[in-house]
């Protein structure tokens, strides 16, 4: 399969050139990450992180023009964090007034069943995102805090919420439904939502563009392998299955998370180890996975332990690989045909050992990697399978901030083309202007590591 050179690939985003830049924000419980993105070329014009918000000593980093400005000082709250970020743009560059900021795109972890696509933010949207907090108690409240502060400090720019779960709102009911008592599931919103959606959406689209193929004609398995890890089955650009579920705990073995596990383990440990719900939550999410099995969740350290003969590390990797192969096989059955397997995120993009061992033994299914191609270190998307393989295996670096930026532009553009103003009268009881009401569910368009 020929991979088109970058200059020969059509750029569906070239029309965005007149819109300048997009400020992408990711507000965590004690952190703020931001990036000023060119939605056409895809480059990060500037980026920064503010960590340890609310603690005695915050850590502030701002990167622009090849230089990094770093300082440590207390950061009281998200409002102060955003004010610091905006002042760094003024003091260090680039000045936002000169960057022609067209929109602010906010990463939101959980859209539940309410949001099947990105949406312009108003007070009602903020409330709805906060109402979904029981589904993502560590993330959604922090996301709303960041959105609220940003809207106050940047009131003249449209703000767009882009949801990690939105790309997977297309899942068939057979894939999204758990075999749990119907009334209980509906009352408490228990279903498969999926996460890392912005990454899966971006990578599947990028595969088609790199290959010069129509996305509608491709069946793709995307393996997003970072500290958090997820798999998806994408048919014709539409997600039909994914490994994460109600929360990001389900599915693949991860850095510190169990992935799939018999739910009765909860009952067993509660009854026999007298563990509370909070203790079990901490065990499953923070003390399990690769780290729980081997004591390390950095794959470079894991490989070093294996080289030194550590049996626990070897078993940890074997469990990790076994789970990945199971999902590849399952998604082959779901899709009926696999055209491409795309590795992405930190481990997927950089660990040639994992990539080679995941597909080991699958040559009979037309799946393999070429050792020389697989060993290449590059930030470019590339094919790593041999010429004879019937399924292409690719490495496609993910760019979630770019995906959020482009989705944000699309949503604002849709509003303008529909003849509706970006800024609406205040929602009753509000003290500030707001944007449009949430869009009716449509075909999904769409990212902290969940």
What is the secondary structure topology, with strand pairs?
Elements: E1 21-27, E2 31-37, E3 44-51, E4 58-64, E5 67-73, H1 78-91, H2 96-99, E6 101-108, E7 119-120, H3 123-131, H4 140-153, E8 159-163, H5 173-176, H6 182-188, H7 197-211, E9 219-225, E10 229-235, E11 238-242, H8 264-272, H9 277-286, H10 289-294, H11 299-307, H12 311-335, E12 340-344, H13 345-350, H14 352-358, H15 371-375, E13 382-383, E14 392-395, H16 400-417
Parallel strand pairs: 1-6, 6-8, 9-12, 12-14
Antiparallel strand pairs: 1-2, 2-3, 3-4, 4-5, 7-8, 9-10, 10-11, 13-14
Helix pairs in contact: 1-4, 3-4, 11-12
Would you kindly provide a brief summary of this structure?
The chain has 450 residues and is of the alpha/beta class. It folds into two domains: 6-192 and 400-417, Nucleotidyltransferase, domain 5 (2-Layer Sandwich), CATH 3.30.420; 216-395, ATPase, nucleotide binding domain (Nucleotidyltransferase, domain 5, 2-Layer Sandwich). It has helices at residues 78-91, 96-99, 123-131, 140-153, 173-176, 182-188, 197-211, 264-272, 277-286, 289-294, 299-307, 311-335, 345-350, 352-358, 371-375, 400-417; strands at residues 21-27, 31-37, 44-51, 58-64, 67-73, 101-108, 119-120, 159-163, 219-225, 229-235, 238-242, 340-344, 382-383, 392-395.
Q: CATH topology of the largest domain, which one?
A: Nucleotidyltransferase, domain 5
Per CATH, which architecture of the largest domain?
2-Layer Sandwich
Note the total helix count.
Answer: 16
Mean pLDDT: 89
Strand count, sense and barrel status of the largest sheet are:
8 strands, mixed
Which structural class is indicated by helix and strand composition?
alpha/beta
Gross morphology = globular
Distance between the termini: 34 Å
Proportion in β-strands:
15-25%
């Amino acid at each position: 399969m020929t991979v088109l050179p970058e200059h020969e690939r059509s750029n569906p985003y070239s029309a965005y050139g007149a819109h300048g830049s997009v400020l992408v924000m990711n507000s965590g419980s004690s952190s703020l990450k931001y990036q000023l993105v060119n939605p056409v070329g895809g480059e990060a014009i500037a980026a920064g992180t503010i960590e340890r918000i609310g603690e005695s000593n915050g850590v502030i980093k701002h990167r622009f023009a090849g230089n990094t400005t770093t300082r440590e000082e207390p950061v009281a709250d998200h409002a102060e964090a955003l004010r610091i970020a905006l002042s760094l743009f003024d003091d260090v560059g680039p000045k936002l007034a000169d960057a022609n900021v067209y929109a602010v795109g906010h990463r939101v972890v959980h859209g539940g069943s309410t949001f099947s696509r990105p949406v312009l933010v108003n007070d009602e949207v903020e409330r709805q995102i906060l109402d979904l907090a029981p589904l993502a108690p560590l993330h959604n409240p922090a996301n709303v805090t960041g959105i609220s502060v940003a809207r106050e400090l940047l009131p003249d720019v449209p703000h767009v919420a882009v949801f990690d779960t939105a790309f997977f709102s297309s899942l068939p009911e057979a894939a999204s439904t758990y075999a749990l008592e119907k009334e209980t599931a509906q009352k408490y919103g228990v279903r498969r939502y999926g996460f890392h959606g912005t990454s899966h959406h971006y990578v599947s689209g990028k595969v088609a563009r790199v290959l010069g193929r129509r996305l509608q004609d491709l069946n793709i398995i995307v393996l997003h392998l970072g500290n958090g890890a997820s798999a998806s089955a994408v048919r014709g650009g539409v997600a039909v299955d994914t490994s994460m579920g109600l929360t990001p705990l389900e599915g693949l073995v991860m850095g510190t998370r169990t992935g799939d596990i018999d739910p009765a383990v909860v009952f067993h440990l509660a009854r026999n180890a007298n563990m509370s719900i909070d203790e079990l939550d901490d065990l499953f999410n923070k003390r399990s996975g690769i780290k729980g099995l081997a004591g390390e969740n950095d794959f470079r350290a894991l490989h070093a332990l294996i080289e030194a003969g550590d049996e626990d590390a070897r078993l940890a990797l074997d469990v990790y690989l076994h789970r990945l192969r199971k999902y590849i096989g399952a998604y082959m059955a779901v899709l009926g045909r696999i055209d491409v397997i795309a590795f992405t995120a930190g481990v997927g993009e950089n660990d040639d050992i994992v990539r080679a061992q995941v597909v080991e033994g699958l040559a009979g299914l037309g799946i393999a990697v070429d050792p020389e191609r697989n060993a290449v270190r590059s930030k470019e998307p590339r094919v790593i399978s041999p010429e004879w393989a019937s399924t292409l295996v690719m490495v496609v670096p993910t760019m979630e901030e770019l995906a959020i930026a482009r989705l944000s532009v699309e949503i604002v553009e849709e509003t303008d083309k529909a003849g509706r103003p970006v800024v609406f009268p205040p929602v009753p009881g509000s003290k500030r202007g707001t944007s449009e009401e949430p869009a009716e569910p449509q075909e999904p368009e769409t990212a902290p590591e969940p």
